[in-house]
Amino acid sequence: MSKALDLHQQEEHLFAVLSGRRFLQMEGLSNEVPFFIYPYPPESALAVAQAKKRVKNKLSQKGITVREVNLYDLAVEILKDRGVWERVLAVEADTDKEDFREMLQAMLDPQLHIAPAIRSKIEDVDFDILFLTGIGEVFPFIRSHNVLNNLQSVVTGKPMLMFFPGRYEQSDTLGSSLVLFGRLKDDQYYRAKDILEQEA
Predict the structure, then answer these.
(1) Which residues partner with 39 through β-bridges?
(2) Which residues of 40-77 are buried (b: 16+ CB within 10 A; e: fewer)?
(3) Which pLDDT tens digit goes with each residue over 65-78?
(4) Alpha-carbon span 99 to 105, nearest angstrom
(5) Nearest-5° angle of CA 69, CA 75, CA 81?
(6) Cα–chain center distance at 19
(7) Alpha carbon of 163 to those of 14, 104, 147: distances in Å?
(8) How far apart are CA 155 and CA 119, in angstroms?
(9) Degrees (nearest 5) of the Cα angle 132, 102, 146?
(10) Which of 121, 14, 32 is nearest to 71 (CA)?
């Protein structure tokens, strides 16, 4: 499927794939993780957010439940639950950017904090598809490939779609990499599939 679909066509394609039995039952994945990426131009973020809402509503009308986890909201919740949110806000202005990034990365470690928090958001909830959003808002404190690597044992038995503001470049020689905002190579992550290339 061509990557040159306009946003309206992408929205229709998303709904067609996500509502299909093949996707919901994770057919044809053999032993691969059921992780999918929807790469979109960062400048289209607002339009994509509206499209995502419409897709969720249409899925819900078909009896398909989407559980959405926004990484930015989750990060704030984790920091508030640990009682450090006010302190983080207070020190941000006077802390060196690099030091501040390292401090937040430690507080929001994907293995120690993010993955367990996502697990608690999905373990007692009945849903068919997990949407992972807020990727751009948490960069560079949380890197998407680290989150994906740590979710492989958390999100099992259900497909997950990560909304990614950038490109997902797949190459036979170089592997696959996430290029955030179309500029920053987040890192290699080869286990997800581009949702725009999935058949409905």
Answers:
(1) 164
(2) bebeeeeebeebbeebbebbeeeebebbbbbbbebbbe
(3) 999 999 999 999 99
(4) 10
(5) 110
(6) 19
(7) 11, 22, 13
(8) 7
(9) 35
(10) 121
pLDDT tens digits for range 123-168: 888 999 999 999 888 877 887 778 888 888 888 889 999 998 887 7
State both tokens at 42: 């960062």
Matching residue, tokens 């949110």? 85
Surface-to-core class of residue 123, CB atoms within 10 Å of its CB (0-12 exposed, 13-18 middle, 19+ buried):
exposed
Could you say which DSSP state residue 119 is in? H
Residue 112 has pLDDT above 60, yes or no: yes
State whether residue 182 is helix, strand or coil: coil
Q: Residue 188 has which token pair? A: 């290699």
2: three-class secondary structure by DSSP: coil
Global pTM value: 0.87
* Residue 2 in tokens: 């061509």
Distances (CA, A) of 98 to 20, 95, 102, 103: 45, 8, 6, 9
pLDDT of residue 72: 94
Residue 37 has pLDDT above 70, yes or no: yes
> How many residues belong to the chain?
200
Q: What pLDDT is stored for residue 139 in this prediction?
A: 79
